[in-house]
Amino acid sequence: MLDAFADESLRFTNAYSASSHTREAVPALLTGEFPDIAIGSDYRLASDTVASTLSEAGYATAGFHSNPFVSRAYGFDRGFDTFDDDLHLGQHKLIALAQRALDKLRNRHYARADEINERSLAWLDAQTVDEPFFLWNHYMDTHGPYEPPGEYATLYADREVSGREAQSLYQRAIDDPESITESERELLIDLYDAEIRYNDEHLGAFLDALRDRLLLDESIVIVSADHGDAFGEHGYYEHPRYLHDEITHVPLFVRLPDGSSETVETPASTLDIVATIEGILGDEPAFSLLQPPDEDRQVFSQARGEDEHSHLRRYALRTREETCFCERDTDTGAIEHTASTDPSLRSTLEAHVEERVRVENGTGGAGEEDGGDADEDDAVGEEIEQRLDALGYK
């Protein structure tokens, strides 16, 4: 389905996420700011999202997803008229308890794509005709633990894998990557590919629904991702705090109302998405995905280290042909280059790092505090902890 969508879109072949994992990549995608500005040290939203900008301009705004890290518990509902983050606790406790029991019974860790489609299309159908709108759907189906549903479970794998086995294998790949055999690695990839196929079908169904409602040719539709997953290429699985291509090189398709098609090799960043959208309101961006120049360009990514690497900040610079990586030790201030021998690229990346250090020192890394009901916050926090555990984050 995405292949057909790509055939009537601008296809960016050198697109990169601003970071490698949800907690930094999605805030950057929604705000158009690097993570060191988009969020605080506690990962709470610290900048306005594109939803806030469009809401102030008279757009109806809605978001539908089920990732706990970008939920209202971290302030990501700001600017959205409707924000469905699939957290039932804190909305109505009795219903939530029943929902949680059902979710456990059917091994449900997040809202599947068909659920996201159903909810977002219901919201669309309730909107006033001709009212401009901004809709963000975030699909979790190509996320670990890899458990493709129904017939997709054996689409590539030669046997059906139980939820318990899939979760155990995924967690072991994260905790002890060297223990994964070649056959287990192939199984993980087969299950991941099957989830991609499932998600592809439901993305297609959503796009067909837009076409049926005569909205597709009246809208700008952008499809991208916050990160990918690695399968042992650099000694790790999943998407930890590194910046290799496997986890930062993302799809990026921009469909214009006229369905014009073009392959764009100019490097692009997920940071360009917000700038492009806000450019529609009249604030012309330095780089627009709607009219990308055919030229080389430098794009940057960043990631905070965690656990024993929490003192590290990782950075990457990419052009059409080259990549440069470095790490900064926040304790000593030392910068170590981990790839690229091109002195010009190294110098450019170091200058970028120095700029980010000034930003980080200036903001202090503190997120904004939102008020709220303490019991509700506790309930939401409990549900988030359970989901993070099931998703392999803990």
Automatic annotation (TrEMBL):
CDD domains, per the entry: sulfatase_like
Chain segments carrying region Disordered: 356-382
UniProt xrefs under SUPFAM superfamilies: Alkaline phosphatase-like (SSF53649)
Gene3D superfamilies to which the protein is assigned, alphabetical: Alkaline Phosphatase, subunit A (3.40.720.10)
Compositional bias annotation for Acidic residues: 367-382
Superkingdom of origin: Archaea
Span of the signal peptide: none
Domain Sulfatase N-terminal: 2-281
InterPro entries assigned to the protein according to its UniProt record, in alphabetical order: Alkaline_phosphatase_core_sf, GAG_Ulvan_Degrading_Sulfatases, Sulfatase_N
Protein name (database record): Sulfatase
Source organism of this protein record: Halorubrum kocurii JCM 14978
